[in-house]
# Entry
Amino acid sequence: MSIRYDEKTRQLVLETAGTSYIMRIEETGYLKHLYYGPKVGQSDMTYPFRIYDRGFSGNPYDQRLNRAYSLDSMPQEYTSYGVGDFRINTITASYADGSRCAEYKYESHEITDGKYRIPGLPSVYDNGDNVQTLTVTLADTASNIRVRLYYGVFEDLDIITRAAEIVNAGEGTVWLRKAASVCLELPFGKWDMIHFHGRHCMERQPERVPLFHGIHTISSGRGMSSHQHNPFIILCDRGASEDSGPCYGMMMVYSGNHKTEVELDQFDGVRAVMGLNDERFRWELMPGTSFCTPEVILTYADGLTQMSHNYHRVIQNNVVRGEYKLAHRPILVNNWEATYFDFTEEKLLDIAEKAKDLGIDMFVLDDGWFRNRNDDNAGLGDWTPDRRKLPDGLDGLADKITDMGLKFGLWIEPEMVSEDSDLDRAHPDWALTAPGRAPMMARNQLVLDMSRRDVRDYLFDAISSLLKNRNITYIKWDFNRPLSDVYSNAVPAERQGEVPHRYYLGLYELYERLTSAFPHVLFEGCAGGGGRFDAGILYYSPQIWCSDNTDPISRLRIQYGTSFGYPQTTVSAHVSASPNHQTGRKTPLSTRGVVAMTGAFGYELDLTRLTEEECGEIREQIRTYRDFESVIREGRHYRLSGLEDGSRYFCWEYVSRDRGRCLLSIVVTDPLANGPSIHVRLKGLIPEAVYSVGGEFECTGSALMANGYTFTQLTGDYPALQLDIRKV
Ligand code: GLA
# Structure
């Protein structure tokens, strides 16, 4: 039993293998947060809260003679609003009389086996394993709003998921203006926040900052989880490192507008609120209806490595679905950086033939295959092949590629429409555009209104008719601009604040229909690279194109940041040409190979232009990848260098499940003449086992972990090395 209620202490206790999460139903009815952290057993956790009379922090009416009792200083599971808690809040609503206050008090709770589901939204699922759900219902009696707080407790995984459902049990309409998923309180300690910021071609750059007094906000209002701010943060003790120290992770299972606020308050307590971005949000909650927030995945771990492993495990096993969840992913070649829009069928077949010869599994045809698509100004929306480029159509090409013994994959960008397309000419009202305004254009395209059923039906039919060709076994689902001018022609004026979220409810519904109808197709997410690299997309597509930047040195930084929250199997990475098309940097083929072997591996360059020597090297890379594929896919990933080392080298390691095999990789980004040795301590090995290190020498796991390994001088342009370390 991972959840219990202790009547004596009025504590609701959630327990995982290594953690406890404890809340208390106060005599006043407020649901107080007491503790989240390492397991504490059957303890009464009310003792740390020796409460003071806090000046200018008032008291609830029935506690008016108890000046020390204030919502403004009490850690809570979900906040009230406008009634004396002046910190960041989880929910704001306004009622027919214009008032906006809410005071949520405990009404009931229920403990059930299995994991709750959230209708219409992706969420962590259980595999029939050790999972329980706690549902606590809070009520604001004046407005008759109920809030159901859901806690999914994954005992074996050290994971707690949270979501909230807001129910209008009254007679009048309620306007929700903010509805966060979670409030996490850390009343004691000194904390740093790590967040993952970036831009197109440089996603998920970790930044670690000490919290200052005030509010830190990490958010996206771009209609996508975004290149700029990933919906994932870590709160860690100021002294926490990869190996030890308290670390809390908060990750949203959502792909649209999000917001995380972290407040260090006047009493040095930390409150973190994560959920939908409230900026353009306004939801009409009719009597008798409810609103469900997206889910947040929480974890507590000792050290950043363990925290990452908790996320890797839950995403790999309980978020990603379908046939490819645990399966080998095909090594692919994508024609984008080889040809861009300028190709003929003959050219594609030449690349495919070479791919087959090199040992590649799949050929992926990227953008430019459909009518009127010779650059990025036209054609999106009309998903019929361009017969000038593909005289035998898509089916003809797919058949020819399949006949070579390769799989065939295809790029699409379903959510978009070009002004210059038959679709836009036929349905100008299907694109998001605000009345009376010329819309912002990005890549000269508009976004389809995914909140509309007719739009989704059109897309379902269009994509289904492509996928009816059973030779298409992979789809790269792209999304190449942010949402602006967000206005739906199918929604009344007073409900326009619902459109950004309804967009994602629509997108997820379409994804669900397509992935259920075509279970054998491998879907890869993409949004100008990694602009929607989030757990919401991973629920439908097991891998995501990590970045449009294929420069291996930039990728080291991007993939390093990505590894904090997301498992290597979800990271799609390709070897591309040198000089690199994004940065102009020249790097050796070997370095490009080492960096791309992080998960879903592939190539994205004109294979027909390779020298014999390069072909030999690629054959060797493919052999190495196949040899280590299961270690990379199923094993544990360890970061052996930190941000401080990143200006000189990046080093990481994969260790097989049974810890018998390890792939140690390093790329030197600044080879110093006569510099200090690069020395790393390995992790995750069996201490008493003897390992062969690259066939050079043998020693115990404990020696490699305690005394480490020193790289002999690595020189040249961005040199890289992979070492095969295996138990003898
Ligand atoms: C985006 C993707 C690229 C490529 C182009 C095609 O930028 O991230 O990989 O597919 O679109 O237009």
